[in-house]
Amino acid sequence: MQTSLTREFLETADGQVADEVLRNCVHCGFCNATCPTYQLTGDELDGPRGRIYLIKQMLEGNSPAEVTQQHLDRCLSCRACETTCPSGVEYHLLLDTGRELIEQRVPRPALRRLQRWLLRKGLSSRPLFTMALRLGQTVRPLLPAAIRLHIPPRQKRRPPGLMQPHPRQMLLLDGCVQPALAPAINDATRRVLDALGIRTVMAGSSGCCGAVSFHLGATREAKDFMRRNIDAWWPGIEAGAEAIVVTASGCAPMVKDYGRALAGDPDYAGKAARVSELARDISEIIAAEPLENCLARTAGGQAIAFHSPCTLQHGQRITGVVERLLEQAGYTLQPVADGHLCCGSAGTYSILQPDLSENLRNNKLAALQAGEATAIATANIGCLMHMSGHARVPVRHWIELLDSLLPEAS
Q1: What topology does CATH give the domain 295-409?
Q2: CA pair distance 248, 251, nearest whole angstrom
Q3: CATH entry 3.40.50.920 includes domain 7-105
């Protein structure tokens, strides 16, 4: 694709990246075939090819309008288009730049600005989110059914107990909303890794990975979260931590991208690159270990359906790994149609684009529940919560299924 980006923008690092991404695009349209929003609306501007054109116009000096903002807002950032693209176009890099620019150039109505600010502040603050959730859970029985669906009941915990003093050590991202919504996920992770001879450490001062702010166009705020996490993890890294383990697949692409995001920061570039090198999805860790040696029993052929989040299969390009681990543990995986399509959660998308999100969720649940699955397994807290209140069967993180087969649970 030919480009004529403004000189002002081409002289920036983001501008040079955007120009390269645009030039790689041949406008073939293959991306539309796997774009969830294009499948729903049939609008060219709701597909990657159309959005690329809109961003290109903006970077070439044309003043963007609200319609450009609307179509960029409708993008899920699922990156299914990147998996499909024969030219290797890194669409998400262009989208991130476009979203940041349009936040500066197209003012939103006051209520929309407030909504996005509240989402950024409320979801990224673990204490604030936990307090709000606990209040909602307390009054949940008194609320109308439509509202109760959006407030999950408080999860019962089985604390991991005393961890063994293993010589191998890894850092574990605690995150922002997961500790309040589903603390059992990281509890299960710690038990499974302990059984595999790995000690996990949580840095108390770490928190949100920055993805919420980043995808809402608040790049500077997102980078502050990144720096805080790097500072929190660095003593553990210097002490020899083998990896930074991420159990929410929605956070892993962000942490793995710290090196690129902070490449221009002289104080953090080197450390950020090291963090990106160490960041691992929990599936990558478990797949490299002798899982069969730590399980007390197998699942005995229990039928489950696995929902592979977009952040796992497209964002990290991890495919088939979790499925093999679950089959190794004795689960029978049911076929799932259109497994490449998003469930509609996508961070804050289910709140900001409720109609599109609901359609995607209904389609996803129909595919996941088409067989005889007794449970749905997934790899991301956002997807789990988005589907749980509407599924006919339990929805759980896949690491919890492995945890249930450990000797302590037998």
Answers
A1: Rossmann fold (3.40.50)
A2: 6
A3: no
